[in-house]
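I am writing to request your help with a piece of structural work I have in hand. Thank you for your consideration; the sequence and its tokens are set out here:
=====
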Amino acid sequence: MGAKSNESLDLLSVFLTGIPGLEAQHGLLSIIFFTMYIVAIVGNSLIMAAVQADPALHEPMYLFLSMLAVTEVGVSVSTLPTVMGILWFDAYKVDFDGCLAQMFFIHTFSCMESGVLLAMSYDRFVAIYNPLRYTTILTLPRIISMGLGITLKSVALMAPLPILLKQLPYCHTNVLSHSYCLHSDLIQLPCADTKLNSILGLAIVLATFGLDSLLIVVSYVLILYTVLGIASGEGRRKALNTCVSHICAVLLYYVPMIGVSVMHRAAKHASPMVHTLMSSIYLFVPPVLNPIIYSVKTRPVRQGIVNLFSPKRELR
């Protein structure tokens, strides 16, 4: 199953890894993961459909929420083929080009998700700081431009990764440590110098996730400063309450990401199962929980989803 270690070769395929130590539990794991995929894809698709169908949800906050749902469906669909292929069919072998494509889409949609979370924090700041001009500042064309900018930035930053990996010679093992293809795994396979790839990967992380998270913190510092200037306690409570769902989404995204980063650097000798579970939490939990949180905490979204299944009443 491994590749030769003493000479360069053309890498035609790689072998993925399930959850170490739980190979005998694939039946149970397949039910758990398939349920998570259904909840993530259906839940986020319902949010997108509700925002599209309900004129009451054609506001900046809900349009950004719809963008977030798109990125989370993208992440889920990107990992689904290999994860369920392993759990259902023991299909560990993946074409190398297909692996590079999966890596590109996983990282691109993750980058887009980070950008959308930043845009949503700006949305909350504008809504609280200048509520009277909220819809005139965040107009539909401006929101579309922000969405396109996030998409183009993510694609442009992630496109060099598979291209550079494709150019390298391979002579080490061709076994990856996850059920899906990640840049941090693939960069371990070449037998050539990967310093450029490592520097580029670090620069992308700092330019996207690092900068986005910093700007989100700055946004909430400004939001808190604005809220403290509101005279009534009830007004302060209502203003902060509009941010609860977004704060949960930010924590669900960045806390597991930080956990994965710490594990890779400070706990390299931890059980492989721990590394796999941390990565799985980072990729799978936000798409599953975000639509649930927004549906529970945001009444217009909940009502919009209910309206999708409500029969149209004829006007008499």
Remarks:
- Residues 58 and 142 are 14 Å apart (CA to CA).
